[in-house]
Amino acid sequence: MLAAERIKLFSQRSTYVLLALTPVITVCGEWFTCSGVHLVGASAHTAYDPLRGSFNSGTWGFLMVGAGILGTLAMSSEYSSGLIRTTFLAVPNRRRVVLAKAVVVASVTSVVGLITAIASFITAQTILSGDRLGIPIGQPGVLQGFVASTAILPVCAVIGMAVGTLIRTSAAALFTTVLAPVLLGAVPTGGNQLTAALSNSAPQNAWNTLTSLGTEWDSVGPFPPTALQSWTALAFWPLLTLLAALIVVRRREV
Q: Partner of 44 at 20 to 30 A CA spacing, among 24, 77, 131, 175?
């Protein structure tokens, strides 16, 4: 089943495009953002967060969307083409199909996430070291940010795959995958701890916390989440959406 799901994933041209562009976009984005650091004043240098600079939120936000799209298309395209009927005839246990697809999608995006995190960190540090802003991987908090950046792509991909299972229609599933995390992360806190917790639980916001050294350059808000809360959020959303997909796929007609 895993081999079959891998073949189906790589039979789509969009998979190759998204996976190939991910490291390229990252290197270009980091080079563009870090190259201008020397233009800022000395006070800004003191407040600058080199870890956040090594994993730029704008570039990585784009990658998260791409990973979510990849996961969504992995399932919704089968429904759109009608291939899902053949799949379920071959494997009547629909939950096994969903789990196998989740494993394949998570495995592929984990490898790409690791390569991309390495490329992002090396590119940024090569530039920042010239401005004496370089940081070693062993510095407290740096390895955490590196691991979080590796993990965020499979997290988004599994969420997207689960959404594709729940909604099935490619256009609606893609719209939900892209828009829902943005809306969740943009919940206005207004000094309220409950809404702040909801906003902090968004995958990108949780990732932002884990890729921050907590300098003046970082905006943490009135209720900053802890590292444990952020890791919990990254685990919660893919597990929740995958569980919902496993429940729905067994009861719904194709």
A: 24
